[in-house]
Amino acid sequence: MLSWNIYHGGREFAPNNLENLLDQVAEIRPDVFFSVETYGSGKQIERDLSRRSGKGTYTGIQITSRPAGDDNLWLFTRYPVTKVYPKPSGGVTTDFNFGGARVLLPNGRQVNLFTIWLPYTDPWDGYLVDENAAAIRSGLQPRHSAQDVAYAERKQTEVLTDVVQRQLPAMLAGNTDPVLIGGDFNTLPAADWAPEWSKCRNHFGMNYPFTATTTLIFAKGDVRTEQSRIVDQRMRRHGPGCLLLRPRCRGQPADHPTAQVAARATTNPRGPPGNTCPAGRAPLSVWTRSLRFRVSVGRPMALARDITRLTLTL
After folding, report:
1. What is the pLDDT of residues 142-182, one digit of tens each?
2. Which of the chain's ends, N or C, has fewer CB atoms near its CB within 10 Å?
3. Radius of gyration for the chain, computed over Cα atoms and rounded to the nearest angstrom
């Protein structure tokens, strides 16, 4: 699976940026690609995956029903599509935020795939956290209170709550096949910023009462991480990213709110130099600024937002 915010259709900043992006998508050869900010590039992605991946014909599903250039969300898959879900209705979520389809796997099982984009808000909570960290590094008091930082993600919480409590149950209508959601959550993982992780490296004693990602269990049941790698790190100025699918770390207490997570991976129990996380433990999601535990987090040569690749067994 590949999840990628390709940033303005992958067309920004350089004439060959979209070409570079298409090269990388074809090289990754994802079975499923959750695409955000697709904006007019959907048909090209579908065509290049079909022609160059060596995995047969791909189907591109335009989730956001708007003209090319405004078509935010797409879903690409090499698997046969058995159902495309209707648009969200009756809440704050639109097809600019969420939508998906059901596909048939080679083993005869079916799986539900949904692409998501939570609203970007200004001020963005991640920037506020960065500004607080910069102040602390300079020996100053944080510029923003914990309450103000958490308040900045209220729109993301509102939309994700609507997705989980209203839209997803209505779309599935009782279907119990596995559900995979990929995209851009535009917020920070609440579990990483709980008080228990405040002394981890680069947290600078900070903790924030984030709420958006607490509405969703990111994986449960028998989910195994089979393969992961850094996709590309040639865009040094972008730095590392964040993976919001939380594999269970060694030493995670059974009563932790995300203890249902059963993705199996390994982590360095001591953490990087300077890490003062609780012994044998680390934040559950992947902040590569502060952890050596990485699952498919990298930056592509083509200029884009977060890119995540994850291989799962279902």
Report:
1. 999 999 999 999 999 999 999 999 999 999 999 999 899 99
2. C
3. 19
Q: Average pLDDT over the chain, rounded to whole?
A: 77
Distance CA 282, CA 263 (A): 15
Determine contact, residues 9/39, Cβ cutoff 8 Å: yes
Query: Which residues, at least 6 apart from 192, have a Cβ–Cβ distance to it below 8 Å?
Result: 283, 284, 285, 287
pLDDT higher than threshold 80 for residue 261 = no
Angle (nearest 5°) at CA 30 between 26 and 35:
85
Please, what is the Cα angle at 208 between 275 and 255, to 5 degrees?
70
* DSSP three-state, residue 225: strand
Q: 101 exposed, middle or buried (CB, 10 Å; 0-12, 13-18, 19+)?
A: buried
53, 26 Cβ separation under 8 angstroms: yes
- For residue 255, what are the contacts with CB-CB under 8 A and spacing of at least 6? none
pLDDT of 107 strictly over 90 = yes
**CA terminus-to-terminus distance, the chain:** 12
Residues of the chain by 3-state class (helix, strand, coil), percent to 5 = 25, 20, 55
Residue 146 has φ and ψ, to the nearest 5°, of -60, -35
Query: What pLDDT, in 10s, does the model give residues 64-81?
Result: 999 999 999 999 999 999
Q: pLDDT tens digits for 199-239?
A: 888 899 999 999 998 887 655 555 555 555 555 544 333 33
Q: How far is CA 209 from each of CA 93, 182, 196, 259, rounded to the nearest angstrom?
A: 23, 24, 12, 19
Angle at which helices 17-28 and 42-52 pack, to 10 degrees? 40
Structure-token pair, residue 85: 């879900």
Could you tell me how many residues make up the chain?
A: 314
User: Do strands 32-36 and 2-5 pair parallel, antiparallel, or not at all (unpaired)?
Assistant: parallel
